[in-house]
């Protein structure tokens, strides 16, 4: 491996034997080294091979600003997530999660605590990703001596979920189809209530996120059932009759019978985004 750029004593950009650009980490790997020198492969501890060009370029920019220990920490978290979840993750996870965790540590040091409004839904629909998020908090505490709040486990889980969503589409056409279906669902809500939705509101953002997760679950054929949802759905059906009927229109549009879990959450989201 030949050095193309030195970020610091422990991180370099290199070319491997296949002429591919890779980011290599190792204690003292670039000590007294310069561009064009060969790397001592015995010192290599971690290797980043990002096949997506845009992700690779942004990752290289990130290395200029983020402490090397944060990059190494996030590498360990991502590798752990891949093993536990047994899924493919989009290359951008190395950029987005590293940037997020580095910023989360700065915010924590400033004494701030940013809430995660989706944490309840993340726990409910994605317990495996949330469990990885909690384990990531252990990784962070072990590495930097700071225990981030549970909200951050939800944020980390969200990054992992999004990385799966972005890697689960076979091509751009799949992503466009999902986007089109989300727009159709929003139009169903708008025309049912004869209102314009506030696309800047938190409720709108949560609904869009829920729909993205929903289509991801459909794509992976995941099913979630809960004993309590039949009872809750009956209550919601009476209390929010118009929202429930709107949900039935969405179900008809999807040409798929939804389970009680999805019926419940879609109805509640519709009720939230249509309230003034």
TrEMBL record:
Keywords in alphabetical order: Repeat
Gene3D superfamilies the UniProt entry points to: CAT RNA-binding domain (2.30.24.10), PRD domain (1.10.1790.10)
Family matches, as InterPro entries: BglG_antiterminators (IPR050661), CAT_RNA-bd_dom (IPR004341), CAT_RNA-bd_dom_sf (IPR036650), PRD (IPR011608), PRD_sf (IPR036634)
Residue ranges occupied by any PRD domain in the UniProt entry: 65-170, 173-276
NCBIfam families: LicT
Name by which UniProt lists this protein: PRD domain-containing protein
């Amino acid at each position: 491996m030949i050095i193309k750029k030195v970020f610091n004593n422990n991180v370099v950009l290199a070319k491997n034997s296949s002429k591919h650009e890779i980011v290599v980490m190792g204690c003292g790997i670039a000590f007294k080294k310069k561009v064009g020198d060969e790397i001592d492969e015995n010192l290599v501890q971690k290797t980043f091979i990002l096949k997506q060009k845009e992700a690779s370029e942004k990752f290289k920019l990130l290395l200029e600003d983020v402490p090397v220990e944060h990059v190494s920490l996030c590498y360990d978290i991502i590798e752990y997530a891949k093993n536990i979840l047994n899924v493919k993750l989009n290359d951008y996870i190395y950029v987005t999660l590293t940037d997020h965790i580095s910023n989360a540590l700065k915010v924590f040091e400033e004494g701030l605590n940013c809430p995660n409004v989706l944490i309840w839904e993340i726990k409910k629909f994605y317990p495996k990703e949330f469990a990885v998020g909690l384990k990531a908090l252990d990784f962070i505490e072990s590495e930097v001596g700071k225990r981030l709040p549970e909200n951050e486990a939800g944020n980390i889980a969200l990054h992992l979920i999004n990385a799966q969503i972005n890697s689960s589409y076979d091509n751009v056409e799949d992503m466009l189809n999902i986007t089109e279906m989300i727009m159709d669902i929003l139009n169903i809500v708008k025309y049912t209530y004869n209102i314009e939705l506030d696309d800047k509101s938190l409720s709108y953002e949560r609904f869009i996120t829920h729909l993205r997760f929903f289509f991801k679950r459909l794509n992976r054929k995941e099913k979630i059932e809960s004993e309590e949802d039949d009872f809750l759905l009956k209550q919601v059906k009476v209390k929010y009759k118009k929202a429930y009927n709107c949900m039935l229109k969405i179900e008809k549009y999807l040409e798929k019978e939804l389970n009680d879990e999805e019926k419940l959450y879609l109805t509640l989201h519709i009720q939230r985004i249509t309230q003034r």
